[in-house]
Amino acid sequence: MELFEADPRARLERSLAVSTAEEELEWVPARRASLWGDALRRLIRNRLAMFGLAVILFFSFLAAFAPVIAPHDYAEQFWDHIAEYPSAEFPLGTDLNGRDMLSRMIYGARVSMTVGLVAQFIVVLIGVPIGAIAGYYGGKIDTAIMRFVDIMYAFPTLLFVILIMTMLGKGLFNIFIAIGLVGWVTLSRLVRAQVLSLREKEFVKAARTMGASSGRIIIRHLLPNALTPIIVAVTFGIPQAIFTEAALSFIGVGINPPTPSWGQMVGEYQQYIRSYWHMSLFPALAIGLLMLAFTFFGDGLRDALDPRMNE
Amino acid sequence: MPEQEFRPHPLTPIPPPADVLLSVRNLKKYFKVGGGFLKKPAVVKAVDGVSFDVLRGETFGLVGESGCGKSTLAQTVIRLYEPDEGQVIFDGHDITHLPEGRLRPLRRGMQMIFQDPYSSLNPRMTVGSIVAEPLEIFGVGDRAEREVRVKELLRVVGLNAYFVNRYPHEFSGGQRQRIGIARALALRPKLVICDEPVSALDVSIQAQVLNLLKDLQAEFNLTYLFIAHNLAVVAYISDRVGVMYLGKLVEVGPTLTIMNNPRHPYTLALLSAVAVPDRRYKKQRIILQGDVPSPINPPTGCRFHTRCPIARPECSEVEPQLREIDRDHLVACHYAEAAPVELKRRGD
Amino acid sequence: MLRYVLGRVLMIPPTLLAMSLIIFIVMHNTPGSPLQPEGANPLSPEDLKNLAAAWGLDRPLHEQYINFLVKAVQLDFGYSYSYRTSQVTEIISRTFPVSLHLGTMALLFAVVVGMTLGILAAINQNGPVDYFCTFTAMLGVATPNFVLAVVLIIVFVMLLPVIPRTGGWDQPVDWILPTITLGLGPMAIIARYTRSSMVDVIRSDYVRTARAKGLAERRVILVHVLKNALIPPVTILGPLFAAVGTGSPFVELIFRVPGMGRFFVQSLLARDYPMIMAVFLLFGAFVVIMNLVVDLVYGFLDPRIRYD
Question: Which chain B residue's Cα is nearest to C9?
Fold first, then answer.
């Protein structure tokens, strides 16, 4: 028998098993499945994350309405009530300067919350564009940026932030800058990795064949698909920023007194812990609680946005 | 298939006449791989000197196994990669090294359909925005006009216009490919490069999408460069076929000629592997020995000689060039004339 | 493989050089001067000039930097500005071993306890043990170490008199609280990593095959599982070294441990340039080398990794 006997078209059509039925009933679900809606639902169901959110909201409330809520001014000194333990009049006691601990704690929330959010905002502002550019353009730009990032990586971050703070001087604003200048490194690495993996995806190639500009590709195609890890990283970066500020103030290079900062309170009073435990315990607990809340929330957010992580 | 004096193969001069929409001459694309500190990178010769023409209105099929370089070829032609050597002439313009600014207006005429329906659509964009994006980029019409156009395109590819606000993940593979096709057609291109558009689909859906493509070609006067690894699929839709192996074309010709009278041993082997669900049909399988060699270190002489059942000593020394063995039928083999008979003889 | 190691090792000096340059620039742009530490008695202009000359601070900046480099390569970092009679290298050689001691103990604690918790949690997935371990891990990750220090002191020194005093370094009992404080964070991270890696391995096909084969006991499977699951946590040891090193200043301050971290913070405040430089470079080199060692160990443990 010949190798090819039948009409090739007919033979090949048979091999394709072409179905003669033209229309296939394609069914698409009636309800619109929104990507964010699913994630939100999963998040709400996570109790730890909701607990974290509650704590965050609580402290935000304290921070926002501090002047109204705090019973006393945070700098006001009550000379006849120096270093008192918690009492009815001063629910959290007073410190060595006779200042009301409760009021100082409430105002301290302001510092911590602000630092957490603003510092991370700066981190995003610097880290995302740098990471995106390095990842997208590749080549020499990428190598140059990554070398720089590697060097920054070798620095112990906290110590470097301390160094910058000694350079800039104390103050809230300087803290934002210091944390931002050091913290963008991890985020840029993350963004770069995402961009690198997304760059070869077919929808990005499709955009290029359509003549889309680089800017359009980065903003409309790459970044929206890289959002999930960015959001998660930022959410975890907030407690880190809070910790950094607390650490800075602990050593004495952070906040300008008399503005209260929880870290500064712990730092100043930890040496008296045997006699005046309340002065260092409350701020320490507050720091821990706020960081914990952000961590729980961040965990929940990550699980909600990435269903594969659920077990 | 158009009947005319011009014979589309590499022996004709440049610039080609007007009926040639795409002309590829001696195209080469290499990739550097795995270099490190103190170590030179290896070079993958993905496309190593490919030449062919595509006439207006026809479908030119490109077939070959995985790794032969056909996808790279497609992406190089559409300038996703920049060619290392050779020329690409589209609609009379030499776009080989054209800077992006000058290339952009030409991109309107040349679009691509991709292989993986699950990653060729941006998961964060609605179907409507996906299809409308080419129109947005080139500033076609205002928002309302674009919306109308998008719905019309969806209808043309067989999807309900109601789907504009849905997200890609809500659709099946076949539907997503249709969305991709709608997107490719948005700018009314002249040439559509189809990079394995049905390889990731179920067989019955493959047939639907292929038929859709054929209908669209007739309706919009399109020219296709159709790439696949399945010879049956390529033959079904193509007017002319080119067979690729390890970065080079080994046989080119009209579909019927290639199917009825293949000359290259590789083509013969490919054809023998096509499954035919007919018990009466007995065929001889030509089974190739060995694996595909690495494109980093292609064999000397004829690249196929390591697996060729009829290889002779000179096949490993001299590389065969594409030569015309019949009218419009080109083969790159020293023993093309005797190949079919030889293979059959050895099979018995 | 050798090429890879060589490449990495060769990258160290340039990295350190770049670090030193950055620190130098930052330091010399810092307001305040080592000649006038805060709170000390002000010196007369005459004395200021002499001191500046003695410390070479009156030379142009680039000359200072070159001088520093030349001496640094010979490991001579000069005399500390704060402790005028002591050489920087001497101070460091006195305090660094202490910090290293604490850091090593903390890391050992973290690895041993962390891996155990992680393994237990993974075996008992979604059970009570798992929840307990995961929760502890989360607490460890989220709580800053000085907060932890305060809490631990209050609980274990004041409320339950388990530990006699709040600080010091002479007796082994002094080592307990600082180690736990410093090691809890890394322990939590290791525990989480170990758990997730164990879960991945337990779910993998070759373990299912082992079970299907009816392998005698879970113990035998654990041998299969453990060997593979413990590899990924090793990879994070590198960054953890850095974290431990970074966290030590606070722990050392609170527990009055005579380590390098404590001196470092003081030298920062006092603008003690030689100390600052030396400590940063030491940290930097340490981190980079540890990262390389960890990468190599990882490559050794996991036969799939090939550096070439």
Answer: B37
Residue B340 sits at the chain A interface (C-beta within 8 Å): yes
Instruction: Give the B window 61-100 contacts with A, CB below 8 Å.
Output: 75, 78, 80
* Contact assessment for residue C201 and residue C230, using Cβ atoms and an 8 Å cutoff: no
B213 with B245: CB under 8 angstroms? no
- What distance in Å separates residue C111's CA from the closest CA in chain A? 21
Both tokens of A23, joined, read 């229309």
Q: Which residue in this structure is represented by tokens 């290896």?
A: B42
Token pair in block for residue C113: 């306890």
Chain A residue with CA closest to B110: the answer is A209
Complex ipTM, two decimals?
0.83
Strands B191-195 and B110-113: parallel
Write the pLDDT tens digit of every residue in A5-43.
445 555 554 444 333 333 344 455 444 556 677 778 888
Whether the per-residue pLDDT at C224 is higher than 60: the answer is yes
Cα nearest neighbour of A222 on chain B: B122
**Pairing of β B223-228 and β B191-195:** parallel
Burial class (CB in 10 A: 0-12, 13-18, 19+), C84: exposed
Chain A: give the shortest CA distance to residue B259, in Å: 6
Is the entire prediction scored with pTM above 0.80? no
Taking CA atoms, what residue in C is nearest to B37? Answer: C7
Q: Once rounded to an integer, what is the mean pLDDT over residues B259-283?
A: 78
> Is A20 touching B (CB cutoff 8 A)?
no
B180 touches chain A (CB under 8 A): yes
Round to whole Å and give the CA distance between A210 and B185: 11
Select the residue from A9, A13, A28, A31 to test the B interface by mutation, using most B Cβ atoms within 10 A.
Answer: A28
The string of DSSP codes covering B132-176 is HHHHHHTT-S-HHHHHHHHHHHHHHTT--GGGGG--GGGS-HHHH
Of the candidates B164, B165, B161, B181, which has an alpha carbon nearest to the alpha carbon of residue B173? B181
Nearest to B50 by CA among B321, B326, B328, B335: B321
Residue by residue, DSSP assigns C112-162 as: HHHHHHHHHHHHTTTSHHHHHHHHHHHHHHHS-HHHHHHHHHIIIIIISTT
Please state, rounded to an integer, the average pLDDT across all residues of chain B: 85
| Cα–Cα distance measured from residue B146 to residue B136, given in angstroms and rounded to the nearest whole number | 8
pLDDT: which is higher, B115 or C282: B115
> What is the distance in angstroms between the Cα of C268 and the nearest Cα belonging to chain A?
7
For residue B14, what pLDDT band results from cuts at 50, 70 and 90? low
pLDDT band at A174 (very low <50, low <70, confident <90, very high): confident
Ramachandran class of A79: left when φ > 0, alpha when ψ lies in -120 to 50, beta otherwise: alpha
Helix-helix angle A277-305:A47-64, to 10 degrees: 130
What tokens appear for C104 in the block? 């090593």
Q: Is B63 helix (H, G, I), strand (E, B) or coil?
A: strand
CB contact under 8 A, C19 and A273: no
